[in-house]
């Protein structure tokens, strides 16, 4: 019986000691400082990991754009610097309007062969051959009709038009028919040309 009491008393002291130790280590002023330091170290580590992942993603995306720009430059005999700017703008427009940037680049290729000053007999202008009179309101957001040949403005407006058609019709095949101005029952090869070129551009990245 005496032995059991001694063991019980010992266990109580061990429990009290453990409680005091935990309190001092975690809940006292010094303990709180220690816990906050650990939390900050963990958050800093997570932040560094996130930044590293973002950095790696950015590098991969930059390499992707460079490879595509070089191919387009050779294919269409346009300055690599000029094409790289168009590629950057196309990816930016793709992010803004949630449109595949490779579809944008393929539309530019088919519509204007990457000539920012291209003009059709019907009055379509720029890289994406946008009709300024029809889409005047969209140009007003970027400075008006005078900006219709501006590379960034033309791509942004053209992409917004394409996005609106995509939302209306539900896929790029039908949206591209609307973009080029033909009926949904048309046998136009325009969507096929655009989407085939999009797929070709994407294959460049898969080979890298």
Written account of the structure:
With 208 residues, the protein is mainly alpha-helical. It has one domain: Orthogonal Bundle (Lysozyme), CATH 1.10.530. It is built from eight helices and no strands. Helix 2 (29-76) crosses helix 3, helix 3 crosses helix 4 (101-112) and helix 4 packs across helix 8 (190-207). It is globular, with a radius of gyration of 31 Å. The termini are far apart. Residues 2-6, 19-26 and 52-56 have low confidence and may be disordered.
Short description:
The chain is an all-alpha fold and 208 residues long. The protein contains 8 helices and no strands.
Topology:
Blueprint: H1 2-27, H2 29-76, H3 80-97, H4 101-112, H5 136-140, H6 151-169, H7 172-180, H8 190-207
Helix pairs in contact: 1-2, 2-3, 3-4, 3-6, 4-8, 6-7, 7-8
Q: What would the CATH topology be? A: Lysozyme
Supply the CATH class.
Mainly Alpha
- If classified by CATH, what would the architecture be? Orthogonal Bundle
- Helix-and-strand structural type: mainly alpha
Number of domains: 1
Considering the chains and any ligands shown, give keywords for the structure:
single chain; 208 residues; Lysozyme; 75% helix; 0% strand; globular
């Amino acid at each position: 019986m005496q032995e059991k009491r001694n063991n019980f008393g010992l266990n109580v002291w061990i429990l009290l000691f453990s409680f005091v130790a935990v309190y001092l280590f975690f809940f006292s002023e010094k303990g709180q400082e220690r816990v906050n330091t650990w939390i900050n170290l963990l958050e800093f580590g997570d932040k560094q990991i996130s930044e590293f992942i973002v950095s790696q993603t950015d590098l991969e995306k930059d390499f992707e754009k460079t490879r595509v720009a070089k191919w387009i430059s050779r294919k269409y005999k346009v300055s690599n610097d000029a094409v790289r700017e168009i590629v950057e703008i196309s990816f930016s427009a793709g992010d803004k309007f949630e449109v595949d940037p490779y579809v944008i680049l393929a539309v530019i290729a088919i519509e204007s062969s990457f000539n920012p000053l291209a003009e059709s007999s019907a009055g379509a202008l720029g890289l994406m051959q946008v009709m300024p009179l029809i889409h005047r309101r969209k140009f007003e957001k970027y400075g008006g009709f005078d900006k219709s040949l501006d590379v960034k403005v033309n791509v942004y407006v053209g992409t917004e038009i394409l996005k609106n058609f995509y939302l209306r019709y539900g896929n790029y095949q039908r949206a591209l028919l609307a973009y080029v101005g033909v009926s949904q029952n048309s046998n136009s090869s325009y969507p096929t040309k655009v989407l085939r070129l999009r797929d070709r551009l994407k294959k460049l990245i898969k080979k890298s």
